[in-house]
Amino acid sequence: MKQTILDMNVDHKRVFVRVDFNVPMKDGIITDDTRIRGALETIKYLVDHNAKVILASHFGRPKGERKADMTLAPCAAHLSKLLNKEVAFVDDCVGDQVKKAVETMNEGDIIMLENLRFHSGEEKNAPQFAKELGSLADIAINDAFGVSHRNAASVVGIADYIPMGAGFLMKKEIEALSTAVNSPEKPVAAIIGGAKVTDKISVISNLLPKVNVMIIGGGMANAFIKAQGCNIGSSLFEAGQEQIATDLVMEARVAGTRLLTPIDVVVADAFSNEANTKIVDVEHIEDGWMVLDIGPKTRELYTDALKMMKTIIWNGPMGVFEMEAFAAGTNAVAEAVANADAMTIVGGGDSVAAIEKSGLAHKISHISTGGGASLELLEGKILPGIAALTEV
Ligand code: AMP
Fold first, then answer.
1. What is the C-alpha to C-alpha distance for residues 328 and 320, in angstroms, rounded to an integer?
2. 147 burial level (CB within 10 Å; 0-12, 13-18, 19+)
3. Which among 58, 336, 351, 363 is least surrounded, fewest beta carbons within 10 Å?
4. What is the mean pLDDT of residues 99-121?
5. 291: Cβ below 6 Å to ligand 1?
C-alpha cells in the first residue's frame, strides 16, 4: 500500500508539496482556479498540523529556461487570497535563496517556489536536481495527479531522497479511478469518444474485458462505421483505423462485452456550425458529407444503456461539441451520466468541459483533474508518480 498524507507524521515538519498550478491564464490573470482550489485541502491540513509548507509546481512548457510569462507569482498571490494568509513567493525552486527562505520559515508558514520547469532537471528527472529539491524538506507530498504520468524530478526522483506520500487530491483520484477500473460495482459502462482512435485504442482494449458495455462516439466512431462496410464520406478518418476497429470488435466479442457504436449520425457538408446538416442512418452517409455528431436514435440507445449501469467511466465527446449544431450527442450523454444512479467518473478536458457547461458537474461522483494521467490509468498503466510513493 502506498503512503498517503494521513499515514505520515507531518507535525512540525518541512513538507515539500508538489501541486499542479498549471492553470489557464490570460495576460497574467487566472481564468480558472480549479486546480489551485483542488490543493487547498492538503495545504490547510498541513498548516493546521504546524508544518512548514513548501509548494512547488510547473507552469507551461518553458523547456528549462526562465520565461517571464510563465512565472508562478500570480498563482502564489491567488492562493494567498483564497487562504486569507500570506504565501511568500520565492524567485527560484533550488539554490541558496530557496534554502535561506526555508530556513527562516516558521511553523504553519507557506512558501511557493518558482516554476520547476525553469530548470531542465525537472522534466529530465535529473538526480542532482531531485536531490536539491529533496534537501529542502523532511518529507514530500504529491498532490499533482495531472503530472503523475510524467517521469519528473518533483514527482519521481525526489522520493529517492525523502519519503513521499499522496496528498488528498491525489488520493481521491487514485481511489476513484482504480475502483472504477479494478473493482467497480457492476454493471459497468465505459464511454469513449474524441477524435483519434489511435490515441485511445489501448484504453478501449484494456477496458473491454472489464466492462459490460463499451460505448463509442466522436470522430473515432467513424472507424467502426467504416469497418461495418459503410461509406463515411469526407468524415475524419486515418488510414489503418478500420483494422484497429475490426480488431476491437473481435476483442469485444471474445470478452462478451456489448459494444455500442452509432446507428445514426448528424452529417454536415462542411466543418462549420453554419453548414447544411441532416440526420442519416450510418448505412446512408453520402459522399461530400461528414459525420460530426451521433444522431437521435443513437442518443436514445446510449442513454438507455446507461440507465441500468452502476458504474460509468466517460472520456471524450460524442461529436464536435464546441459547435452548437453538433453538441446534442455530447450533451445527451452528459445528462445521462449525471442522472444515472451510479458511481460516475468523468475525465479528459473536453468531457469535463461538457459536463460543466451542462451545469450537472455536481452530480458526478468524480471529475478527474488529470486528462493524460487519467487516460493512462484507464489504459492499465502504472503511473511513475504513483509507483514512486513510499510504501506504508
Ligand atoms: P480527443 O482529444 O481525442 O478527446 O478529441 C476531442 C476532439 O474531438 C474535440 O475537439 C471534438 O471536436 C473532436 N471530435 C469529436 N467528434 C468529432 C467528429 N465526428 N469529427 C471530427 N472531430 C470530432
1. 10
2. buried
3. 363
4. 98
5. yes
Angle between helices 371-378 and 168-182 (to 10 degrees): 30
Q: Which of 196, 258, 363, 381 is catalytic?
A: 196
CA distance 339 to 355: 12
List CB contacts of 84: < 8 A, sequence separation 6 or more. Answer: none
Asked if residues 271 and 290 have their Cβ atoms less than 8 Å apart, the reply is: yes
Answer whether 329 contacts ligand 1 (Cβ < 6 A). no
The pLDDT value recorded for residue 277 is: 98
Residue 105, class by beta-carbon neighbours within 10 Å (0-12 exposed, 13-18 middle, 19+ buried)?
middle
Residue nearest ligand 1's atom 6 by CA:
194
Tell me which of 350, 368, 374, 375 to substitute to probe ligand 1's pocket, judged by most ligand atoms within 8 Å of the beta carbon.
350
User: 8: closest CA among 41, 37, 44, 51?
Assistant: 51
- CB of residue 184 inside a 6 A radius of ligand 1: no
Atom of ligand 1 nearest to the CA of 291: 19
Q: Is 56 helix (H, G, I), strand (E, B) or coil?
A: strand
CB neighbourhood size of 326 (10 A): 23
Hey, CA dihedral for 138, 135, 94, 173, is it positive or negative?
negative
**209 preceded by cis ω (within 30°)?**
no
pLDDT in tens, 334-376: 999 999 999 999 988 788 888 888 889 999 999 998 888 998 9
Q: What is the rounded average pLDDT for all residues in the chain?
A: 95
Q: Distance (Å, rounded) from C-alpha 323 to C-alpha 346?
A: 21
Q: What is the pTM of this model?
A: 0.88
Residues 6+ apart with CB under 8 A from 133: 16, 56, 93, 94, 116, 153, 154, 157, 158, 161
How do residues 264-310 score in pLDDT, each as one tens digit?
Answer: 999 999 999 999 999 999 999 999 999 999 999 999 999 999 999 99
Question: What are the CA-CA distances from residue 234 to residues 90, 111, 281, 291, 326 (Å)?
Answer: 53, 54, 16, 8, 16
Residue bearing cell 446538416: 277
- The catalytically annotated residue of 60, 108, 371, 372 is 372
Catalytic residue (choose from 28, 240, 349, 359): 349
* Cell 524567485 belongs to residue: 91
Burial (Cβ within 10 Å: 0-12, 13-18, ≥19) of residue 86 = exposed
